[in-house]
Amino acid sequence: MTDGDAALDEAWGSILATLEKDERVTPQLYGFLSLVEPKGIMAGTFYLEVPNEFTRGMIEQRSRVPLLSAIGGLDSSLEVSTFAIVVNPEIEQEILQTGTDPVPVEAAPAPAYAEAPAQVAPPAPPSPEVTVAPRATDTRLNPKYSFDNFVIGQSNRFAHAAAVAVAEAPAKAYNPLFIYGDSGLGKTHLLHSIGHYAMSLYPGIRVRYVSSEEFTNDFINSIQNNRGASFQARYRNIDILLIDDIQFLQRAVETQEAFFHTFNTLHDHNKQVVITSDLPPKMLTGFEDRMRSRFEWGLITDVQAPDLETRIAILRKKAQSEKVMVPDDILEFMATKVSSNIRELEGTLIRVTAFASLNRTPVDMSLVQTVLKDLITLDDDNVIAPVDIITATADYFKLSVDDLYGSSRSQAIATARQIAMYLCRELTNLSLPKIGQLFGNRDHTTVMYANKKISELMKERRSIYNQVTELTSRIKQTRR
Ligand SMILES: Nc1ncnc2c1ncn2[C@@H]1O[C@H](COP(=O)(O)OP(=O)(O)OP(=O)(O)O)[C@@H](O)[C@H]1O
């Protein structure tokens, strides 16, 4: 990586000089570009740091094309062809706390870009290998997960930059991109973000997100129903395959074989593959060597547990998106109390905001302490089995375990089932498809829906809040 040296400053200086003369770059836009700190060049990508998301958005949406052409004019010995923008989390945090935004003076206020489409840079041309036929593809992307709401910190900075680079230049930057790390640290979030961002840059691009459990089910169904051809079409006629939690293909010999062929076809045709896993390729047991070695062809990067600052920034972002006011000292208190699993951090915030909303009180320290008292913090010695959650839920609602696994749609059973799913999601490390399987082979979207529904209902109905809280403390007692 060319880093902080004179060559880097010189390269960025020359880009700025070109952009200043480019008539597509307005003085306002130039103001944003002048906030950029060049950080380094790696594998053909120029890494640029900006102070906040707003600046990133302005540069990415409005000066992408001129910036790419200016990069194209650099000395070829630098071997740089694209760029990736990262937001400096320290500066961004300061801005969010103080409310002062270092937008260039001439550029603020900036609604002009919404009002003056003529100034908006045209979307980037698709890279030649990308098929842009405008056809509807079932991408299975979750709109909740985008780069815009992903908080960057030391723990995930590199994975984030690699994910952005892949979305901007599919099959060019790194192929495959392999992201690994413990549960709940943002791998799925990054996968979906790649999909959304690539689709915004290349309209018509065919993206498919799939968990490895869904891939397995799909494959098995296709064999059972003699629909091999449509299975192949679904996974091969695409431009980007995002496959989550590949470790679940361990020892599934035939599914691995199917994935091996899918991977080869996509890779041979310059299509992007992004893979996530809980372990790096070398440590993935139960995979053939030829499979593991393919995982290592591109770039391998990890996501780690976020440090305290990043946890605070994540909580702050979630609170903002939920439109709840949570003072900084309370965010910090919560981030200190809750372990590093981000899913659990989010669960805490949901409980706190639900409690405040039900009681129509602001979020203050005593409220947070009351709520946290009932929460379980997960650590290695305190693993909760889904069966404990399901048994406790059935018992609590005076139902049978089979009622929860079964298909009854009666309101009482359906709500109890949704609460059990919500608690499985919050209190265990199980993925959505795994929870779906547990509850009578339901689709992962059913679990996603239950999770959303119960989070919302907790804010609106005291009875639901109380049920979830009481159940949690019962489960907690069984762990003691
Ligand atoms: N850096 C981040 N910024 C904002 N939210 C984050 C970040 N990292 C994780 N999250 C949130 O934490 C939750 C868990 O993340 P995610 O599901 O992506 O984890 P994961 O690593 O894929 O876990 P698993 O291996 O269990 O599937 C999600 O709601 C996600 O939005």
Automatic annotation (TrEMBL):
Keywords, sorted A to Z: ATP-binding, Cytoplasm, DNA replication, DNA-binding, Lipid-binding, Nucleotide-binding
Cellular compartments annotated: Cytoplasm
Binding site for ATP: G184, G186, K187, T188
Xref: InterPro entries: AAA+_ATPase, Chromosome_initiator_DnaA, Chromosome_initiator_DnaA-like, Chromosome_initiator_DnaA_CS, DnaA_C, DnaA_dom, P-loop_NTPase, Trp_repressor/repl_initiator
Coiled-coil annotated residue ranges, if any: none
Predominant cellular place of this UniProt entry's protein: cytoplasm
Annotated region (Domain IV, binds dsDNA), positions in chain: 357-480
SMART domains: AAA, Bac_DnaA_C
Keyword tRNA processing: no
Region (Domain I, interacts with DnaA modulators): 1-108
Keyword Cytoplasm included in the entry's annotation: yes
Region of interest (Domain III, AAA+ region), residue spans: 140-356
The Chromosomal replication initiator DnaA C-terminal domain, residue ranges: 385-454
Domain AAA+ ATPase: 173-301
CDD domains: AAA (cd00009), Bac_DnaA_C (cd06571)
The protein's role, per its UniProt record: Plays an essential role in the initiation and regulation of chromosomal replication. ATP-DnaA binds to the origin of replication (oriC) to initiate formation of the DNA replication initiation complex once per cell cycle. Binds the DnaA box (a 9 base pair repeat at the origin) and separates the double-stranded (ds)DNA. Forms a right-handed helical filament on oriC DNA; dsDNA binds to the exterior of the filament while single-stranded (ss)DNA is stabiized in the filament's interior.
Database matches in HAMAP family: DnaA_bact
UniProt remark on domains: Domain I is involved in oligomerization and binding regulators, domain II is flexibile and of varying length in different bacteria, domain III forms the AAA+ region, while domain IV binds dsDNA.
Quaternary state and interactors: Oligomerizes as a right-handed, spiral filament on DNA at oriC.
Similarity field: Belongs to the DnaA family.
Protein name as it appears in the record: Chromosomal replication initiator protein DnaA
Lineage: Bacteria, Bacillati, Actinomycetota, Actinomycetes, Micrococcales
Gene that this sequence comes from: dnaA
